[in-house]
Amino acid sequence: MSTASAGLLASSTILANDVYAGFFRRGSGGHAGAEEYNASRLATLLVGVVVLVIAVIVNDVVGALTVAYDLLVGALFVPIIGALFWRRATGTGALVSMLVGGVVVVGLMAWQGLLANSPIYGGLLASLVALVVVSLLTPQASEHEAAAWDRRMTGQDTT
CB-based contacts of 68: which residues, under 8 Å, 6+ apart? Predict the structure, then answer.
């Protein structure tokens, strides 16, 4: 239960603080604390429901690991590696890449079966195309942001 609780809280915190606050919050307006709190609660509820549905559908550990690795590799590998090594990658491109890769993996798993490994390949390809196309269509980071990223990647102080 401790591991499940930690995973649920970590996932919902990332959704609320990084995705929602970074991309969707409109201004701070003095109520940002309550807004962030409500977003975190909603993210926890949504992640919990999704995990519960997956737990009901998948009835063995090997199946659960297959689903997890299909999603992990098919949806997250390309944007993580792309963000680390391709200087033109953008945050929007990475987010869209994760979403597209995840949707493709889930769709292919629904079509080919929950225990299929081949959805990884479709997710990787869709994720790569989405990262490249969206990153090229969105503006690059400013020189200041790029310099801060370079300092962070080389282990220098970012202050």
Answer: none
Place of tokens 């519960």: 52
pLDDT tens figures, 1-14: 666 777 777 777 77
Whether 131 contacts 79, CB under 8 Å? yes
Q: Where are the domains of the chain?
A: 1-57, 59-159
What's the CA gap between 155 and 145, in Å, rounded?
A: 15
> Using CA atoms, how far apart are residues 148 and 65, in angstroms rounded to an integer?
37
Distance CA 121, CA 73 (A): 9
Residue 78, both tokens: 């390309």
Residue 147, number of CB atoms within 10 A of its CB = 12
- 104 touches 119 (CB < 8 A): yes
pLDDT tens digit string along 47-94? 888 888 877 888 888 888 888 889 889 999 999 999 888 888 888 899
